[in-house]
Structures are given as structure tokens and as C-alpha cells.
Amino acid sequence: MIGLLLRVDRRPAIILFDAMCVLCSANAQFVLRHDRQRRFMLASMQGEVGRALFERHGVDPADPDTILVVDGDRVLRDSDAVLAIYAGLGWPWRAAGLLRLVPKALRDPPYRLVARNRYRLFGRRQTCWLPSPADRDRVL
After folding, report:
1. Which of 43, 45, 89, 109 could form a disulfide with 93 if both were Cys (CB 3.0 to 4.6 A apart)?
2. For strand 13-17 and strand 40-44, is the pairing parallel, antiparallel, or unpaired?
3. Residue 9's pLDDT band (cuts 50, 70, 90)
């Protein structure tokens, strides 16, 4: 997983997220604010690119149960995706990568529980979150 952000060609990895979810869109804004190396681009499941990528990787864009990080041919999901995102943001967020020491079998069930209940726990936006004009080039 460490190789995810150390690619030679340095093309940004794509984070696929739900722009109607309050938690997911807040996380997208957090990434844009803290990704100073521009390692990530974003694509929402409500957009054409995000929908196609979700479908290509076997996730129903009408009812996704995970976040995906697509980096070339590699795809990370669930807690692996979240940890890769935070590790890619640099310090102090990179410290979250230490959670990779926790077995995936223990990390993923709580992640999935939150993902399945994200609207009930955090709310649903009335409209999709849209980036600021300064960040529009980072959203597909």
C-alpha cells in the first residue's frame, strides 16, 4: 500500500466519494485543503466519471458502501483507502497510517458500519457539494 503514493509518473490518485453525504463531502474538502502536494483528485459518485469508476470496480454508484482510491491499476477500498488518503496528506495526518498495524479484519467492520449508516449518522445534503473555483481543476 505504501507504493500507492510513490508512483514514478506522479499522476494523482482519484478518490471516489459520495457528494451528497455530509461526512464524505467534509472529507473531500479536508483533502483539498491539506493535500499540498496535489496527490489526489476527487470524483463523486453523482458525476459521470465517478459513476463509471464505481461501476468499473464493482460498486453500485446508487448505493455505495465504500470509498475508493484508484491509483492507476490499483484500487483501495474501505479502511485501506481512508488510511492511504491520510498517509498521502503528509504530517501530521500521515500518523493515521499507523492504524495499518491493526488487522484489516478489525478495521473494516467499523468502517463498513459507518459507511452503511452515513446518512443517518451525519446527514444528507440537499444538493451535491461543489468545489470552490480554486479547486475545480481537482474534481473530475
Report:
1. 89
2. parallel
3. low
